[in-house]
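Exercise 7. Given the encoded structure of a 979-residue chain, write a plausible sequence.
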C-alpha cells in the first residue's frame, strides 16, 4: 500500500538525513523576518496580517512550557480562507506551520521554528444552540467565556481545565484537555459533537454536515481511502483493538486517538475523533460544536486531612462513590509549601511530612439533592482515618462561596508555591500522568522516591478520582549537568509509569515535545506505526507541527530548552504560563504581561549593545511601558501573584528627567492650584469646542503631544465632560455616620453631557441623608489626592507627597479611624486602601492601618440600600464593572445597586478593564479602543435605558468606546429612590 508508506524526510524529524530548519536562537537578528519572506507574505495577506519585527518574533517564542523556539514569522489570519491560503503557501514553499491560540501549552505545542499562526485574536465567538443543549464555539474563545454564555441557560462545557480563564477551546480540542471533574466521560472527545477543520491540503470539512462524507470523498479521495484502510486494519486485530480500548479506560492524551478508527463509522466520523488530541498536527480546528452538561449550582466543598498518602488514596473511591464530583489530592510537601500563598492557612507549615489531604467537592442541581450527597459523604467520613476527626459533614464542608474559593486557592497553590519559589534562573516543568485509580497511592510514593533519587524537590498533587497526578520540576537549562539530571529523571519516570503501572505518560496535557520521544515506549511499535501512518494520511508533506507528537530523536525533548535569565526580582518568578493574558487591556494592541517579561528576558540574553538588544529596547517603550494600563488585573490572574504593571511604573519613573520629577512633586504639593486650573482648562476647551467644534482642542493637544511627548500630554476626546461645579455640597460634621471623600476626578470632571439632576457628590450626600446616615465632606478636601495620579505615571516623589498628605488628613477627618472614609471612585478607593502604602513614611503607614476605607458602592449597597425605598426603575441597564472594583471584591455591590434600579441588568460577558486608567486613555486612546472592542460590541448590539459604572474616567472611556452615555450607578440610585 504505497499510499500509507511514510516519507522519512518529511515526517520523521530526528531520522538521519533530515535537515532541520536553522536554529533561530543563533540566527536571530535585529531585522526580524527575512526580507524576501516578509515581502512575499505581505503581498499575499496584506501587511496588517504579517508580524515580522524582532519584538514580534521574540514575544511569540515562549509559551507555558520549558521550551523556546523563535519563529521566522507570525501570521494573524482573520478567517478560514486566510488559513487555507497559509497552508497552500506552506505547501508551495516547503515550509512548516504551527498554530497558536492562548499559548498556555505546557509542552511546547504552541511554538514553531518557521511560520507561527496566531489563531486567538480574530477567532472568538460563541453561539448557544438548542436552548443551551449545544454550543458552537470558535477556537480562540476561552473556556470561561463559553461557560459564561452557557450559565444563563443552566449549562456548562464538559472539559474543566484549571486554566479555563485563559486556555481556548481550540487548545482544549487539540489537547483533549479535561480538568478536575471531566475524567474520561466529560472530556472533548466524548462531548464534541462535530468539528469544522481545515486540513493541511486546505480542504475545509464540517463533520456535522450531513453531506460531509460525500464532500470529503469528492475533495480528498485518497485520504478517505487511507482512513478506511487503517480502520479495517485495526478492527481486524482483536489484540490491538483491546489494547486501544484499555489505554483509554484511564485518562490518556499521549499520541493520536486510535479509538477514533473504532468509534467513527465513516471518514468524517473518524476525522472528528482524530482531531481531538491531535495537537495541531493533523489540521486546524476552525469551529467546534459541543454537547453541553447541566450546571449544578449547589456546591459544598471540604478539605480532609489524612495521616498518609495510602490512607488518603484509600478514601478516594469511597468519596467518589458517594457522589463527589472532584477529589483533589495534595501530599504533605504540597500542603506545607502552599503556605507561601496568600489565603492558605499558616499552620499548614507544621503538618507532618507523611500526611496528605483530599479536597472534595459535591455538586447538585439544588439544595435538597446536595443535602442527600452530604448525607452519603457523612457515612463515608465515619469510616475514615483522619488526622483531625470530623464529627459531621457540617464541620468539614462549607457552602460559602468565599470559603470554597479559599480552599481552591490552596489546591491551585501547588503551581504557585513551587513555580514562584524556584531558584532564579531555573525553568519549570509541569508534567502529568495517569495510573489505574486503585494504584494511586503506590504511584504517588514511587514518584516521590524517584524525584528524591534524582535530586528534585518532591511534591505531588492531582485529580485523585481519575488516577491523574501532577508534579513540577525546576532545573537550569543553561547547566549541562542539570539537563542530564533532568534527562535521567524523565527516562526513569517514563519507564516506571509504563512498565510498572501500565499508565498514561500524558493524562490531560497532551504529548508535546517533552513526551514525543517516549510515545512508542507507551504504545508499542505497532500502535506507534499506525500513528505515523495516520499523520501521513492527513499531512503527507509534514507541513503541520513537526516534533510535537511524533519524534524519532530520543533526545528531542532536550532540544530548545528555555533559559530564564534573572531580570528583576518582581518578575523573575514568572513561569510564562499566560494566565495573565485574557485580562490584559493591551493584549490585542501591543503586548501582554507575559510578553513584557519575555522581551526583557531576551534583552538579558543578548550581549550588551547587540543589535537585537537595541532593536528590542527601541520598541519596548511604547509596546510595553506606555501601553500598560497598570490596573493590577494581571496580578489577580497570575498564579505567582506578579503585578507587571508595578514594573512598568518603575520603568516610567526611570525615564523621567530630574526636572520632570521635580515638576511633578511641585504640582503634587500645590494640587489645589492644579485642580482649579484643570477645571478652568475644561471650561475653556468646551467653550472653544462650541465655537469651533472639537477640531480646535484636538489640534491644540495634538501639537503639544508632538512637541512634548505623547505619554505626557493628554489628547482631547469629544466625550470629555465639562468641568465640575467649584462648590461641593454643604454638609455637617456633627452626627455624620461617615466621612465622604469626593475623589479629585469627580471634583474636576462633571457628569455626562446633558445630564439632568444632581452631581455625583450631591447624589451621595442626598442618598445618605435619605437613609438616615448622613455624611460629612471636610472643607479641606480640595488639593488632596489618593496619589494614584502620580504613582501610575512613575512619579515617586509626587506620589509620596500626595500619599502622606491624604493619609494625615484622612486620619484627622475620621477621628483616628473611628468613622469610615467613603470614596466615590473605585480606583481611588483602591489607591487609598492598598496602593498608597508603599509611598508612606513609617508614621503615616501606622495611621493608614487605622483607617477604614469604603468604596461608595459598598457604602450604598451594604449600609444605605436596606434603608431606602426604590420608587422607580428603568426597564434595562448595562453595567461596566471596573477593574478596581474587582480587585476590591466589590463588583457584586455594583451589580446589586444596578438591580435595585433596573428590571433587567446585563453585565457583558466580555466586560474587562477599559484601560482608561486615570488618564492613560487620553494619552493613548488606541489602548482604550482596543481594550473595549469586545465589550462595546455587546453593549451596542441592543438598546439599554441606562449605562452604569462606578468610576468617572471609566465611564468616559466606555462612552468613547460605545457612543452611549455612562454614568455612576449612585446617580441612578438617587433617581430611583427620590421622593
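Solution.
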Amino acid at each position: 500500500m504505497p499510499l500509507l508508506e511514510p516519507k522519512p524526510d518529511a515526517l520523521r524529524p530526528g531520522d538521519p538525513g533530515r535537515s532541520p530548519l536553522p536554529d533561530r536562537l543563533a540566527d536571530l537578528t535585529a531585522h526580524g523576518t527575512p526580507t524576501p519572506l516578509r515581502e512575499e507574505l505581505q503581498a499575499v495577506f496584506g501587511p496588517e496580517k504579517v508580524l515580522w519585527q524582532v519584538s514580534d518574533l521574540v514575544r511569540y517564542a515562549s509559551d507555558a512550557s520549558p521550551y523556546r523556539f523563535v519563529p521566522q514569522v507570525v501570521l494573524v489570519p482573520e478567517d478560514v480562507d486566510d488559513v487555507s491560503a497559509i497552508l497552500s503557501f506552506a505547501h508551495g514553499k516547503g515550509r512548516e506551520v504551527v498554530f497558536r491560540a492562548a499559548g498556555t501549552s505546557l509542552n511546547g505545542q504552541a511554538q514553531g521554528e518557521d511560520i507561527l499562526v496566531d489563531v486567538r485574536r480574530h477567532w472568538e465567538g460563541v453561539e448557544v444552540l438548542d436552548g443551551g443543549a449545544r454550543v458552537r464555539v470558535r477556537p480562540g474563545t476561552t473556556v470561561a467565556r463559553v461557560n459564561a454564555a452557557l450559565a444563563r441557560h443552566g449549562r456548562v462545557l464538559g472539559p474543566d481545565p484549571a486554566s479555563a480563564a485563559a486556555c481556548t477551546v481550540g487548545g482544549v480540542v487539540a489537547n483533549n484537555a479535561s480538568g478536575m471533574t471531566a475524567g474520561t466521560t466529560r472530556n472533548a472527545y466524548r462531548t464534541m459533537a462535530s468539528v469544522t477543520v481545515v486540513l493541511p491540503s486546505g480542504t475545509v470539512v464540517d463533520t456535522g454536515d450531513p453531506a460531509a462524507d460525500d464532500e470529503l470523498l469528492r475533495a480528498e479521495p485518497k485520504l478517505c481511502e487511507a482512513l478506511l484502510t487503517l480502520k479495517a486494519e485495526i478492527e481486524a486485530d482483536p489484540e490491538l483493538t483491546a489494547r486501544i480500548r484499555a489505554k483509554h479506560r484511564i485518562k490518556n492524551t499521549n499520541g493520536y486517538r486510535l479509538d477514533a478508527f473504532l468509534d467513527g463509522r465513516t471518514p468524517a466520523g473518524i476525522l472528528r475523533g482524530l482531531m481531538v488530541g491531535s495537537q495541531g498536527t493533523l489540521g486546524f480546528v476552525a469551529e467546534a460544536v459541543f454537547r453541553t452538561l447541566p450546571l449544578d449550582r449547589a456546591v459544598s466543598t471540604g478539605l480532609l486531612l489524612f495521616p498518609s498518602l495510602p490512607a488518603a488514596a484509600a478514601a478516594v473511591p469511597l468519596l467518589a462513590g458517594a457522589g463527589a464530583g472532584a477529589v483533589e489530592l495534595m501530599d504533605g510537601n504540597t500542603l506545607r509549601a502552599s503556605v507561601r500563598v496568600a489565603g492558605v492557612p499558616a499552620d499548614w507549615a507544621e503538618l507532618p511530612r507523611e500526611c496528605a489531604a483530599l479536597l472534595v467537592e459535591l455538586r447538585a442541581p439544588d439544595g435538597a439533592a446536595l443535602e442527600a450527597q452530604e448525607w452519603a459523604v457523612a457515612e463515608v467520613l465515619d469510616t475514615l482515618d483522619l488526622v483531625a476527626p470530623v464529627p459531621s459533614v457540617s464541620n468539614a464542608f462549607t457552602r460559602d462561596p468565599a470559603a470554597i474559593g479559599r480552599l481552591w486557592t490552596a489546591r491551585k497553590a501547588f503551581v504557585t508555591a513551587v513555580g514562584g519559589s524556584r531558584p532564579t534562573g531555573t525553568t519549570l516543568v509541569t508534567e502529568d500522568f495517569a495510573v489505574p485509580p486503585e494504584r494511586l497511592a503506590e504511584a504517588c510514593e514511587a514518584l516521590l522516591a524517584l524525584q528524591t533519587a534524582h535530586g528534585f524537590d518532591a511534591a505531588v498533587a492531582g485529580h485523585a478520582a481519575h488516577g491523574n497526578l501532577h508534579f513540577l520540576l525546576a532545573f537550569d537549562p543553561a547547566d549541562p549537568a542539570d539537563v542530564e539530571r533532568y534527562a535521567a529523571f524523565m527516562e526513569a519516570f517514563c519507564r516506571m509509569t509504563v512498565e510498572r503501572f501500565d499508565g498514561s505518560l500524558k493524562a490531560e496535557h497532551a504529548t508535546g515535545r517533552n513526551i514525543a520521544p517516549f510515545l512508542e515506549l507507551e504504545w508499542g511499535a505497532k500502535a506507534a506505526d499506525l500513528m505515523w501512518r495516520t499523520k501521513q494520511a492527513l499531512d503527507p508533506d509534514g507541513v503541520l507541527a513537526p516534533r510535537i507528537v511524533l519524534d524519532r530523536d530520543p533526545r528531542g525533548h532536550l532540544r530548545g530548552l528555555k533559559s530564564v535569565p534573572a531580570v528583576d526580582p518582581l518578575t523573575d518568578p514568572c513561569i510564562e504560563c499566560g494566565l495573565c493574558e485574557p485580562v490584559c487591556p493591551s493584549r490585542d494592541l501591543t503586548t501582554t504581561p507575559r510578553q513584557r517579561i519575555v522581551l526583557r528576558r531576551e534583552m538579558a540574553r543578548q550581549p550588551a549593545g547587540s543589535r537585537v538588544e537595541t532593536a528590542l529596547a527601541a520598541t519596548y517603550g511604547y509596546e510595553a511601558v506606555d501601553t500598560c494600563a497598570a490596573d493590577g488585573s494581571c496580578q489577580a490572574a497570575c498564579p505567582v501573584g506578579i503585578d507587571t504593571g508595578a514594573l512598568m511604573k518603575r520603568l516610567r519613573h526611570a525615564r523621567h528627567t530630574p526636572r520632570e520629577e521635580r515638576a511633578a512633586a511641585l504640582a503634587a504639593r500645590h494640587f489645589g492650584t492644579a485642580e482649579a486650573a484643570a477645571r478652568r482648562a475644561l471650561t475653556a476647551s468646551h467653550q472653544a469646542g462650541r465655537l469651533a467644534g472639537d477640531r480646535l482642542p484636538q489640534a491644540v493637544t495634538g501639537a503639544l503631544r508632538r512637541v512634548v511627548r505623547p505619554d505626557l500630554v493628554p489628547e482631547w476626546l469629544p466625550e470629555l465632560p465639562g468641568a465640575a461645579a467649584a462648590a461641593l455640597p454643604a454638609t455637617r460634621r456633627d452626627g455624620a455616620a461617615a466621612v465622604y471623600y469626593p475623589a479629585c476626578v469627580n471634583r474636576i470632571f462633571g457628569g455626562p453631557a446633558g445630564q439632568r439632576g444632581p452631581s455625583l457628590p450631591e447624589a451621595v450626600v442626598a442618598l445618605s441623608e435619605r437613609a438616615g446616615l448622613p455624611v460629612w465632606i471636610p472643607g479641606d478636601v480640595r488639593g488632596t489626592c489618593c496619589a494614584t495620579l502620580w504613582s501610575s505615571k512613575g512619579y515617586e516623589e509626587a506620589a509620596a507627597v500626595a500619599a502622606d498628605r491624604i493619609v494625615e488628613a484622612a486620619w484627622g477627618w475620621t477621628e483616628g479611624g473611628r468613622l469610615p472614609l467613603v470614596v466615590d471612585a473605585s480606583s481611588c478607593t483602591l489607591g487609598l486602601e492598598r496602593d498608597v502604602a508603599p509611598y508612606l513614611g513609617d508614621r503615616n503607614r501606622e495611621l493608614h492601618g487605622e483607617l477604614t476605607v469604603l468604596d461608595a458602592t459598598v457604602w450604598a449597597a451594604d449600609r444605605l440600600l436596606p434603608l431606602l425605598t426604590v420608587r422607580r426603575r428603568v426597564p434595562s441597564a448595562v453595567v461596566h464593572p471596573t477593574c478596581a472594583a474587582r480587585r476590591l471584591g466589590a463588583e457584586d455591590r455594583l451589580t446589586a445597586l444596578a438591580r435595585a434600579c433596573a428590571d433587567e441588568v446585563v453585565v457583558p460577558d466580555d466586560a474587562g478593564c477599559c484601560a482608561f486608567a486615570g488618564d492613560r486613555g487620553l494619552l493613548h486612546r488606541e489602548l482604550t479602543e482596543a481594550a473595549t472592542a469586545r465589550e462595546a460590541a455587546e453593549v451596542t448590539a441592543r438598546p439599554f435605558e441606562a449605562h452604569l459604572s462606578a468610576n468617572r474616567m471609566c465611564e468616559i472611556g466606555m462612552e468613547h468606546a460605545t457612543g452611549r452615555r455612562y454614568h455612576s450607578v449612585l446617580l441612578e440610585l438617587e433617581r430611583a429612590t427620590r421622593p
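Remark. Residues 298-509 form a domain with the Vanillyl-alcohol Oxidase; Chain A, domain 3 fold (CATH 3.40.462.40). Students should compare their own answers with the one above.
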